[in-house]
Amino acid sequence: MPPTASRLLLLGLAGAAACSSGDGFVDPGSATPSRAFGIWSPGPSDSCTKEQHDAYSVLGPDGKAYPTWHPPTGPGGCTFGHEHGRDPRGSDLYGSADGLPFGHANEMLAVSDPANPRDEDHFGHKVEWQNDMQLEFSGAGSAIFQLECDVLTKLHQGTHSKDAFTNNVHELIYHFECADGTKMHVTMLTAIGTPGEFVRSCDREVHISAGAPVPANSPNGGGLRAVPDRFCVEQHMLVAPGERSNFRSALHETWQTSNQIRSADGHTLASFNPYFQVRLPSRFHDPALAPAVGRPIEVCYEMTAAGERASGGPCDDSTDEGQAAGVTFDDPRSLFNGAGHFVDINGNHLANQDGPEVWYTDAYGKNARTEPFAGSVRQRLSAMDNFVGVNAGGPTIGGDRQYSTAGVRAPN
């Protein structure tokens, strides 16, 4: 199998019954493992093995083995304890996605800048897609038309740890095609907001300085990471007797990305800005704790001196209305697991009229050239200029889906 093919190394996505080992998994073979491969191990609540998990792998453009999407349950119904969103095989763009390798942009950063790598955990890779969306298209003379488009995207959006409090660099995969010939097939590290800080989610006005980012040379980016903190919890989750908590205001994350593919001379070849949303993450920022990670499930058991406490919704459901004591953040009974995620599809711009259709960029989507170089990532853009979608508030995909199935728990 040639490295450029990026085909599935094994049959994990087709179901473990097709595997030849007889053990419910397949040996990933002799490919060199990427930094992202093999980093997951089962916890006490997980019944699948590490080998079963690692069977879901693909060969990346560099010939290395990468993890990819897998269902939350494995052979014989065993549980992995985490989910990666929607099965990408149903997307019309899956054939153009190189098997959806998780961590390829991170790998290329480690090649080009080994002193400043960006490694991300396995849990946070979340996939969403939609076929046959209707988006606005700006035609000649400012006329607006409806255009049918497909999108398949993946962001590493970890919502269980302290990582996103300080770290604004996250891997993004974005495949987008429309009926008029618009095509974007992009893998990059997107810089979301300012390194070392985030925006308080319940008011979007307060910027919280949370510490030094990794890598230390993380670039500033557009957009923002809106993350809940202890203030949001106290304002909207702890309520007076007789009232019900507003979990939507207390615990909702919005990661607004602003992405560009730019040539070596600074020309923007493509831009796109999907917003990634999460309901009920398993963490919030609390500087009074070490390492500044508060757990919503623990707030379910709190009561203030004034008698304020969390009431209703996921607290009652997770604790059997308070009758189940000691439900921890990583307990499968807790609904605070970050499995309610969805994406807003916003503006998509191409300025590549003169081509070519294949570019090679650094891991951050910059310095695009026509030939590959050490640590480069291949980007595919149609040779055209256009604007599809809206600048903000575009159609939401995945908003009616819930990925909290059997065994899914934090960390997720």
Q: Which features does this protein show?
A:
412 residues; mainly beta; six-stranded antiparallel β-sheet; 7 helices; disordered N terminus
Description:
The chain has a domain at 129-397. It has helices at 50-54, 104-112, 163-166, 230-236, 247-250, 296-299, 313-319; strands spanning 57-59, 65-67, 125-138, 144-156, 169-178, 183-191, 197-200, 207-209, 224-227, 252-256, 259-262, 268-272, 275-279, 284-285, 293-294, 340-344, 348-351, 358-361, 377-381, 385-388, 396-397. It has a 7-stranded mixed β-sheet with strand order 8-7-9-10-13-16-21. A hairpin with a 5-residue loop joins strand 1 (57-59) and strand 2 (65-67). It is built from 7 helices and 21 strands. Residues 1-27 have low confidence and may be disordered. The radius of gyration is 21 Å and the shape is globular. The protein has 412 residues and is mostly beta strands.
- Series of H and E elements: HEEHEEHEEEEEHHEEEEEEHHEEEEEE
Low-pLDDT regions = 1-27
Largest sheet: 7 strands, mixed
- Percent helix, as a range, is under 10%
Shape: globular
Tell me how many strands there are: 21
Strand order of the largest sheet: 8-7-9-10-13-16-21
Which percent band covers the strand fraction? Answer: 25-35%
Termini distance?
33 Å
**Category from helices, strands and their pairing:** mainly beta
